[in-house]
Amino acid sequence: MKEFQHGEKIKTASGNTVEIIEKLGEGGQGIVYKVKYGEEEFALKWYFGKKLHDIESFYSNIENNIKQGSLSEIFLWPLELTEKRDGSFGYLMKLRPKNYKDFSQFLLAKVHFEDISALINAAVSIIKGFRALHNRGYSYQDLNDGNFFADPKTGDVLICDNDNVSPYGENLGIIGKCRYMAPEVVTGSKAPDCHTDRFSLAVILYMLLFLNHPLEGKRTMCPCLTEELERKYYGTEPVFVWDPYDDSNRPVRGVHVNEIRLWKLYPDFVRKAFEKAFSAELLTGADTEHRIIEKEWLEIFTALRDITVKHSCGSDTFYNADSENCVCINCGQEIAKPMILNVPKHKVVLAKGTKLYTCHTDGNSENDEITAEVVASINDSAVLGLKNCGENEWTAQLPNGVTRTFTKGQTVKLGKGIKIDFGKVKAEIE
Amino acid sequence: MGIYDDVVEVTRRTMVLFFVVDTSGSMNGAKIGTVNSAIEEIVPELKEISEENADAQIKIASLSFSTGAKWINEPISAENFRWNYLSANGVTDLGKAFAELNDKLSRNAYMGDIAGSFAPVIFLMSDGEPTDNYMDNLEELRKNNWFKKAIKVAVAIGKDANKRVLAEFTGCDEAVISVHTPDALRKWIQFVSVTASQIGSRSANAGTINTKGGTSLTGGKINLTKQDEFIREIKAQEAADAAEWDSFDDDGIEW
Ligand SMILES: Nc1ncnc2c1ncn2[C@@H]1O[C@H](COP(=O)(O)OP(=O)(O)OP(=O)(O)O)[C@@H](O)[C@H]1O
Ligand SMILES: [Zn+2]
């Protein structure tokens, strides 16, 4: 197939015209161009027609997805189809801004998240995107390191390749990569669906945090990884590198360097979650349809976010409220006990910049808008206050027994023993 | 700043692309010249594929054969690889090349990367007829496990190339591509290098594709191996070429 040239015009399905500006890149399925549509610029993905096994069902799936509309900001969702032409077609989506980098660039250590908060934000965004998809009865089917992009500064994420997304029970004949596909897909016993998405999600989350693959260790260190062996290691006999009951596939010193160093720096509840996600039971056992769901991951990463603070050495660290003395994961120095906000189900470490969300102040995790932020006094940066950023009026009981109300924009000076009633939820500072 | 400052790249496997080039006398002139410049040109693209790939890095090794066979370079990462121009003279000792391959396709030789390797891609280019008794060496090579699992492909240059021998090497006719013009030679060298490297350096295909559309899991499903996938790519490219053939202006270049 000939590539489109600058200035070439293509008709959309609705009869409008887009004009090719330049080629942005090429993948296994097609070429992505930057195009002009009206006064705006978009990305046009144009398929290699010959590679689509069934062009009609592919076209109509995207058509349906467009009708459905984007399920979350995070997806570079198809916006409009083009006309069919020369045995192929394309669709328009938003352009990915330049500050978003390929996930593979993070894995190859060419790009780093600015801090752990950005990394956690990336994890939370991905989880939320998948939750939105699954809640609407869709599955993604082919999540791998090539489908998403993150801003290293903020951890904001965009997911592309939404053309395979389809409703539960439907399947376009997707081929993924063994490394990211659920064992039952690798063995060919099942087609991708939301349950297999959850396996891929766990792999992506693990790799995001630990920069190695969760199923690659001592056992998989063979000289030649043939396709048969891949099917074995990722399909019939996968073993998690940190499986508490099976140490046959532990990471190898000098080879799986990152996870050996990083695994132990994360709090126990995070490690437990991955141990569960990659347990024999959830990998290949009877329970592959009850893998960790997005809501559960969200709780885990929210809890992780709640205990992440910037240490005086300049690095983010985790504060474990339950341990006697807690040291910084970066410099090893002991961390002075910070103030902690206690609400039902959450313990949030309070430091300058800490944000509270609706899950903390309204007891509701459905939408997590920011409802409060810890700010420092202009006069004395050691004096912290909690600023009301939400719509609810708070009632705070101060240590001197006085009770006062705080509305949006007002700040409660923080101190041990203060009780704040957020309206639906009562909190105490410890 | 923090605990991610000194992360290293994710553990990647290695995938070696072997260029095996006929440098016998008959290749002298435009043929070897085209081979040289085609490979030289495609190296940056291979480098890019390797740099963006979190599954595996690509290394390139090259072997030439004429009177005897000679390694031009052992596997070098695509990032650092540079093609050295080959010149052509001598006979066509293909069997010697097979023996060299067999020797080096071993964990103790070229395939010893600590994190392991994917099966290699072996890309043979020749325009003639073996002058040595290649058969015994090919028999030996075929027993080599690395060779068995490799993606094997050959380009037959011009009308004197022995396509049967090349097919014995690749294991099937479809993986032997015939070219008759310098343009086609350049295009196919580049197409094969890129496509085979992409497929070879990626984690294996998971899942099955429905050969006849539909949404059911049953019926018409196939499990696509890397060699199958590569052959599909060759066929698709050949079909696309054939479509352009009608408008082809043949100005009489014939080999
Ligand atoms: N919305 C976009 N804005 C800017 N660039 C994009 C956009 N979508 C894709 N690209 C770029 O275009 C190239 C190919 O895109 P894409 O990954 O979608 O192709 P593909 O055929 O699905 O590839 P594969 O399935 O092999 O990963 C990539 O380099 C990607 O970074
Ligand atoms: Zn520190």
The CATH homology group name of chain B: von Willebrand factor, type A domain
Major sheet: arrangement of strands of chain A? 1-2-3-4-6-5
CATH topology value of the largest domain in chain A? Transferase(Phosphotransferase), domain 1
> Distance between the terminal alpha carbons of chain A, to the nearest Å?
66 Å
- Which small compounds were modeled alongside the protein? adenosine-5'-triphosphate, zinc ion
CATH top-level class of the largest domain in chain A = Mainly Alpha
Description:
The complex is a heterodimer of chains A (430) and B (255). Chain A has 11 helices and 27 strands. Chain A is an alpha+beta fold and 430 residues long. Chain A has 3 domains: 9-93, Phosphorylase Kinase, domain 1; 101-298, Orthogonal Bundle (Transferase(Phosphotransferase), domain 1); 338-429, Tumour Suppressor Smad4 (Sandwich), CATH 2.60.200.20. Chain B has one domain: 3-Layer(aba) Sandwich (Rossmann fold), CATH 3.40.50. Chain B has helices at residues 30-51, 94-104, 134-142, 145-149, 163-170, 182-200, 226-245, and strands at 13-22, 56-66, 68-77, 117-118, 121-126, 151-157, 176-179, 205-206, 209-210, 221-222. In chain B, strand 1 (13-22), helix 1 and strand 2 form a beta-alpha-beta unit. The radius of gyration of chain B is 19 Å and the shape is globular. Chains A and B meet through helix 2, strand 12, strand 13, helix 6 and helix 7 of A and strand 4, helix 4, strand 8, strand 9 and helix 7 of B. Strand 13 (224-225) of chain A pairs parallel with strand 4 (117-118) of chain B, so a sheet runs across the interface. The complex binds adenosine-5'-triphosphate (ATP) and zinc ion.
